[in-house]
Design goal:
The chain is 54% helix and 18% strand. It has 334 residues and is α+β, with helices and mostly antiparallel strands. The chain is rod-shaped, with a radius of gyration of 53 Å.
Length: 334
């Protein structure tokens, strides 16, 4: 009889234990998560470390939140800058739940937190951007004004000539293209956005890590103005190259004409010298030939003259002159 009662109690205890475990008295926290335990709507504990924990079945409710860094992509919004120029700004931010109990009291769900945070970040972005000029929003440094002039390598030019050419072209291109200097820059403005947004997020148990502009683009009316300015800048650069090329062309043509005249002058001088020497040699040969046989020399010179002049005469009215003695006189020029 006692043995039978003992087995009954053992069975009841086992059934109770099994029923207890079936009601789920334990819960597991995985790595990268944290939980808030509530009892009748009141927070009784928070757990941020991974492990196995106990709860009262059917009474304690466990709400799990991520402990990792989360991202929030905001909607693109149209924001005016300090110059009242509208730009389209699309931001993304990183954040995490720092105090799960405070987060639960503020939102309870991640979707509600996303909606509220999106409003706060959009407001902070608008506040900072509207107080700064366009150049501060789209640029991070003054490197565009501080960069060195581009080096140009010209075929056939020495190193010194190439440097001088690069300096001349650079002075023409950069004469009126100095951009507005940046005092803060885009990075500094994002830090200001974080500071403005943090003031409104501390009460929610949220740690905002950063806000980054994912995309900044001009509005439609500003885009056309920017394109026109870019076209004007490129036209200025093209005109600078054309002007420099025309100047170089004039220099080269002037040098070419000068070299041409120098070559012609030298050639003319050499030709005259050669002519003078040839005439002197011819005169010496003629004199030597005349001294050897004056009569034959006179005859030969007359024949040469006839060969040059007679084809040009259409008619001859008199042959009695001494010029024609070797043609018509039987005794020649005697």
């Amino acid at each position: 009889m006692k043995t039978k009662k003992f087995y009954i109690w053992i069975t009841v205890i086992i059934i109770l234990i099994i029923s207890f475990f079936m009601m789920g008295p334990f819960y597991i926290i995985n790595e990268g998560t944290q939980v808030v335990v509530t009892r009748f709507g009141q927070i009784v504990q928070t757990q941020t470390n991974a492990g196995l924990y106990f709860k009262i079945p059917y009474i304690d409710q466990v709400t799990t939140y991520p402990k990792l860094i989360l991202s929030l992509d905001g909607d693109a919004q149209r924001i005016p800058t300090a110059e009242n120029q509208f730009i389209i700004v699309d931001t993304t931010s990183r954040w995490r739940i720092e105090d799960p109990a405070q987060f639960y009291q503020s939102f309870k769900t991640l979707d509600a937190a996303f909606n509220r945070m999106s409003d706060i970040i959009d407001s902070a972005s608008r506040t900072v951007i509207t107080g700064n000029p366009l150049s501060e929003v789209v640029r991070s440094s003054n490197i565009i004004n501080e960069q060195e002039s581009t080096e140009f390598s010209l075929a056939g030019a020495s190193g010194n000539e190439s440097d001088e050419t690069a300096a001349q072209i650079s002075s023409l291109i950069n004469a009126a293209t100095v951009s507005e200097s940046v005092k803060k820059g885009r990075r500094e403005l994002t830090l200001e956005m974080v500071q403005v947004a943090k003031k409104m997020m501390d009460e929610y148990g949220i740690e905002l890590i950063d806000i980054l502009p994912r995309q900044i683009k001009y509005s439609d009316e500003l885009t056309e103005s920017v394109y026109n300015r870019m076209i004007a800048d490129r036209n200025q650069v093209a005109q600078a190259y054309r002007s420099f090329g025309q100047g170089k062309k004039a220099d080269w043509l002037g040098k070419l004409d000068k070299d041409k005249k120098a070559i012609q002058s030298d050639a003319y001088r050499q030709a005259e010298e050669i002519k003078g020497k040839a005439d002197a040699e011819a005169a010496a040969i003629y004199a030597e030939a005349y001294n050897k046989d004056p009569e034959f020399y006179t005859f030969w010179k007359s024949m040469e003259s006839y060969k040059q002049t007679l084809p040009k005469f259409n008619s001859t009215y008199s042959t009695g002159t001494q010029y024609f003695d070797y043609l018509y006189s039987p005794e020649g020029n005697r």
